Amino acid sequence: MQTRQKIIWTGLLLLLCTDSAIGKTSISKIDYKGWKGCWELSNSLVKLVVVPQIGGRIMEYSIGGENVLWQNKAELGVVKHSDLGKKWHNYGGYKAWNAPQQRWRAPDYDNYYDYAPANVEIICKEEEMFGIRVVTSPISHLGFRFEREIYLSDRTSRVRLVERMRNVSKCDIEWSIWDVTQVNAPCWIVFPLHITNDDPKGWRRLLGPEYPDPHQVTAVGNVGVLKYSGSIDKIGNGSPEGWMVYIKDQIAYIKQWGVQTVDTVYPDGGCNLEVFTADKAMGGYVEMEVLGPIVKLKPGETAQLVEDWFLSRLNGNVTDLDDVIERLKLLQRRGLLPRSVRL
Fold first, then answer.
1. Cβ contacts of 92 within 8 Å, gap of 6 or more
2. DSSP H or E segment with residue 313
């Protein structure tokens, strides 16, 4: 009887969510590229797809059918829970990890557990946002699980992503929430510079000397512009601005988040923003990474990282740095870039 009531209530909640948006926002359960029981959030502008079978990853965020998130074609539809703790499946899309990575243990690295099945329920929110709550399987030996709320506006491309880490152990734990979003390449990534005594360029390289500097970043005004060259590299900084932009062809993907600047410690020497570029052998993609502060959590406590995502169509393909600058000015006029950006 309780199960039947739960099913009826879930269906009613879904009906209320979609009806209150008057057809502008829909939430539906679908099969997607070989995976079962996926969740699609869509409106007249954009679509977002979440796959519970592989950890509740966001595998699509698209406008006009063009998905900005990279997908590993070799892993489409693959579900290998027997591999948990033994190997990593690089599916693509968005997922959350724990940082700093230097504290991951071997040989069963922490990301070897990021594709355990997740549970999903529908939620409604004010401000004309409707969405779902994704609860990942706990990683027992690390003492946490992720609980993410994903909301989609009924009128714009805006996605509100609330990522929480919950301590499910009986001991204190200390981690940062690490957003890893893989996007298609070749592309351009733009980020705010943060010039300090330690980082006079406004960014730092995060890989060792075994990876030669591909010189992918150019400073323009008070921003850095990375042009993907197909090389392995990783950069980051501790800018308090809290934004990043991806540009490819005629689409821009904007991430915005809040940065805590008082009494906090961030991973990797103080980075809340990082960009990783993968070569062709790895899959030829780029990672837009956002990190929260390192937080000590008592049993039952949570930390959270909140982001807003936007997609925006641009007026023409982007082929060189001058094109990038003009499109950034357009995004600034649209209110998607801070007024503090100087180009």
1. 57, 59, 69, 70, 71, 72, 75, 182, 283, 285
2. strand 302-313
Per-residue tokens: 152: 């989609």
Q: 184 - beta bridge partners? A: 285
- pLDDT, tens digit, for every residue of 117-141? 999 999 976 566 789 999 999 999 9
Distance (Å, whole) CA 291 – CA 122: 26
Using CA atoms, how far apart are residues 221 and 329, in angstroms rounded to an integer? Answer: 12
Which residues are paired to 140 by β-bridges?
none
At 276-292, the pLDDT tens digits run 999 999 999 999 999 99
Domain boundaries, the chain: 2-333
Distance CA 169, CA 299 (A): 6
Burial class of residue 27 in the structure, from the number of CB atoms within 10 Å of its CB (0-12 exposed, 13-18 middle, 19+ buried): buried
Q: Are 85 and 108 in contact (CB under 8 A)?
A: yes
Q: 3-state class of 70 per DSSP? A: coil
d(CA 228, CA 240): 24
Q: How far apart are CA 288 and CA 253, in angstroms?
A: 10
- Domain spanning 2-333, CATH class: mainly beta
**Rounded to whole angstroms, what are the CA distances from 65 to 45, 60, 102, 118?**
10, 10, 38, 26
